[in-house]
């Protein structure tokens, strides 16, 4: 379920073609999933609309008894005319996540799970829990469209470079698609350029879409790295203050 915080934020971003916000229907959907006992948390998009309100967003989810959270910055992928006006900078996203980390730590409630933060904490403590953004294996995440076509992760635009086949093809044909092999090789090259980074053990080159100028870039963007490193350093320093590492 995608829910971008309280109604006043969510309805500005996630609306129907008529302009009507979808908040009420999303909350109704969550009720249905809860009744069926299959509600498994939300993804909250962070954009220019809501990034300045981490406390309000965090408290809203707690008040709604939504305790499994994933935050993700809104990406510009070229499908939609007005998306770029919603995209925030790497520094703004890092500020938001650091504020959420502090709120989560201050709450001290193990039932509240924030996927990104728990991955980073687990990896700093020597565990191996990873989000896709810290796996360095974006070639293993695909999108299946309604016509059965299979493309790379939907963070990327639907382009020929990332067309891997169709659900009507034999799996072996899809798996051996040259474009998947090319993507895997590109990811390996990117990892090579990251290995000297102190945070490689967490980051592994981060998101193949967010961290690079374009699909064939090998070097990550400085601005993204600077903020990723700030984020990892902040969490690591806090954890060190508990004498856990
Ligand atoms: S912070 Fe930047 S340089 Fe370091 S591992 Fe991540 S993407 Fe690579
Ligand atoms: S491109 Fe980004 S969102 Fe997509 S699988 Fe890779 S890390 Fe995850």
Overview of this protein structure:
- The protein is mostly helical and 245 residues long.
- Helix content is 42%, strand content 10%.
- It contains nine helices and six strands.
- It has a three-stranded parallel beta sheet with strand order 1-2-3.
- The chain is globular, with a radius of gyration of 19 Å.
- The structure holds iron/sulfur cluster (2 copies).
- One iron/sulfur cluster is lined by residues 194, 197, 199-200, 203, 205-206, 211, 220, 225, 228-229.
Short description:
By secondary structure, the chain is mainly alpha-helical.
The count of helical stretches stands at: 9
Task: Strand order, main sheet: write it out.
Answer: 1-2-3
Domains (count): 2
Oligomeric state of the chains present here: single chain
Structural class from helices and strands? mainly alpha
Largest sheet: 3 strands, parallel
Strand content: 5-15%
Radius of gyration: 19 Å
- Low-confidence segments, given as residue ranges, are none
What ligand molecules are bound, each kind once? iron/sulfur cluster
Q: What's the overall average pLDDT, rounded?
A: 93
């Amino acid at each position: 379920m995608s829910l971008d915080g309280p109604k006043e934020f969510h309805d500005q971003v996630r609306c129907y073609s008529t302009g009507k916000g979808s908040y009420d229907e999303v909350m109704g959907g969550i009720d249905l999933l809860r009744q069926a006992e299959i509600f498994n948390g939300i993804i909250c998009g962070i954009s220019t609309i809501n990034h300045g309100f981490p406390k309000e967003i965090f408290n809203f989810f707690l008040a709604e008894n939504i305790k499994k959270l994933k935050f993700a910055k809104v990406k510009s992928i070229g499908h939609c005319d007005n998306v770029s006006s919603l995209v925030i900078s790497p520094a703004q996203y890092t500020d938001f996540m650091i504020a959420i980390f502090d709120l989560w730590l201050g709450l001290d409630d193990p039932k509240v799970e924030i996927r990104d933060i728990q991955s980073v904490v687990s990896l700093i403590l020597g565990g191996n829990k990873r989000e896709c953004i810290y796996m360095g294996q974006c070639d293993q995440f695909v999108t299946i469209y309604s016509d059965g076509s299979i493309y790379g992760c939907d963070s990327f635009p639907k382009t020929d470079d990332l067309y891997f086949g169709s659900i009507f093809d034999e799996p072996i044909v899809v798996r051996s698609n040259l474009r998947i092999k090319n993507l895997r090789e590109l990811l390996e090259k990117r990892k090579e350029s990251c290995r000297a980074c102190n945070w490689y053990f967490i980051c592994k080159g981060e998101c193949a879409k967010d961290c690079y100028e374009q699909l064939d870039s090998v070097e990550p963007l400085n601005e993204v790295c600077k903020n990723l490193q700030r984020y990892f350093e902040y969490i690591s320093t806090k954890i060190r203050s508990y004498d856990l590492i």
